[in-house]
Please model this.
Amino acid sequence: MPKLDPASKAQPRKFGTFAGVFTPTILTIFGVVLFLRIGWVVGHVGLAHALLIIVVANAISLVTALSLSAVATTMHVGAGGAYYMISRTLGLQIGGAIGVPLYLSQALGTAFYTIGFAESLASLFPGLDARLVASATVLLFGLLAWMGAGVAIKALYVIMAVLAAGLLSFFLGAATSEWIRPELAASEGVRVSLWQAFAIFFPAVTGMIAGPSMSGDLRNPGRSLPRGILTAIAVSAAVYLAVAVCLSLLADPAILRADSLVMVNLAAVPWLVVAGIWTATLSSGLGSMLTAPRTLMALAQDNIVPVWLANRLGSAGEPRAAVLMTTAFAASVAWLGGVNVVAPIITMFFLNTFGMLNLTAGLERLVSSPGFRPRIAVHWSVSLAGALACYAAMFLINPPATVLAILVSFGIYFLLKRRSLAQDFGDIRGGIWLSLARAALLRLRAYAPQPRTWRPFIAVFTKLSSGNAGDPAREGCALSGPSGVCRDDLLDLGSWLCGKSGLATFVHVLADSLGNKAGRGLRAASRRHLAGFLGERDAVAFTESIIAPDFDQGVLSVMQAYGLPGLEPNAALMGWSHHPEKRPGQLRLAHTLLAFRKSVLFLHVPLQVGFGQRRRIDILWTGGLHNGQLKLMTSHLLRRTPEWAQAETRLIRPVGGQAGIPGARRHMSRLLRAAHLQAEPLVFVLEEGRPFLEQIRQATAGASLLLVGLRLPEEDDFERAAHSIDEFLAEMRCAVLLVSSAEAGDLLKLDESSS
Model:
């Protein structure tokens, strides 16, 4: 947030519905198109198509106004109007991607209307330089905006009175003139298409956005915005339809095409229409000059554009820095000249904004967010249809320009995405994902878990206890009771195994009584700590913390209750304890987890070795498929990751004599072929009289990871089994993963025809 001037702390004047919404909206709608281009449209495409253009344009405007009203009545609308609502609903990145083009279109609108004023003046006084007049008018508007919205809106009241008098003069002239038969269709030889005429007319209805842009200056935006905008649309649509019909009844299409001031010649009091033309174009330009700086200031306050643009330069409420920028930009554009040049550009920008406003309201209603409680209920299909109509119209008008407008928005979005803008408000994106997740979970209920559709949903357990806090020797290590396995290794292995196929959840177990820790916020702090640790390593995983009397109880609680049907953890990964007295308890825990149909993975990593170069995975094969399938699946999952993609896999099986080699090799080759896995089957003969563990160590020398099946003993034999595992691990010179599978089915989807 920028630091504003002390004077800006004063409370700015607040406007009601008529002054703050209806007046700037209706006067922005009644601009260049009403007096200088509606006849041009009727003359080129005929009355029927002209009425269709007016109806379609106003229908898009009406649907957008309804969508805008729905959003405005369910939230506090701050400065920035449409940008504020989009950014607070879809996030700053998407809001900025729409807000920047919205500001440019509003600033272009100022130039557009002043160019129209200059053209009308130059047609009456040929000696005038239209570009000079347009630029000088922009500077005058900038001066009024600098003085304040209060001064400008007082000027708008005068303009509205003159404009009403001009329209009344035209309608009186139409009522007293002789009518001709209107041309319903376009004349032969006219080369202006329906959608080209639509692009010229559409800026007329874009004035609808002027009211929302004044939202920061309203006493009650939630009430004033819908009332003021909808009333302005209804009044303006009726006037445009009436003017189009009158022109078709009073003038030949050729005259309508050639004479931009035809309304002057048809009016009862021509000079009132001239005054109306000038006031209409001036009011639209002034309305745009009031709204564009406020959008720019809102963008600056959100750090989308440089924050100095939000500076009020001593004013109590006027965005004076933004006024200076807008004045400079609009004055330079005014030198381009030509209403027909600028109009299509404004049309594309505004259609893009209207489309996003409709999309915002439609998605809010569609995801059924409890926080979306509008006082004006609009069905999601209406808003989404409005969004579709906006983008369809863009493509029909000019497909290359549409693609360019979308690419500009996406370019701004990705630029803002890279800047990682901070926001302290929620947006609809979370609601969209929650709705999709809810729908997917409800559908998932119908599918019972099957071994052949198995995916790794692994809970990775670590323990932080008061006895280890602040111990530099254990810094960065995850303690499973406590264990000697570094937390980095557990995190890496869990991330690798789940990859893009499953879900990993890293769980802190806070070992203490619930009463001691629950009231001190330690669980939330533990989650933040682990989430920060994962974020530093760009790990994609969930985090959880649980307070339990001891580590084992924490593991059992999570493995029973965490997750949802179809997405609950199917395996627990933890470190093998370096405390001998705790290892039998780990086997007892594994025994219980297997009874719950949860697989168990114990990781042992020598701290000085780690995972080495990750060049080879060895699987110690004993012939059975029970733990064997999970070992093979584990190696397959690892090799799918970039870190292990270059690793080779070996299937190592010891046999008692030379006679067993051919059969063992055939069996392993057949298994690998049936499972469609790449691995080298390696069979070696155990030498009699030589220690078994020494021979295994020699056979697996150079491996980065050794996968070993873990057969759990009966409950009264845990101590002996733990001692045997310790002896085995002590002999190995690489990381070892002990695998005990609870999966009884065909995890590998074995191709029986190949076996």
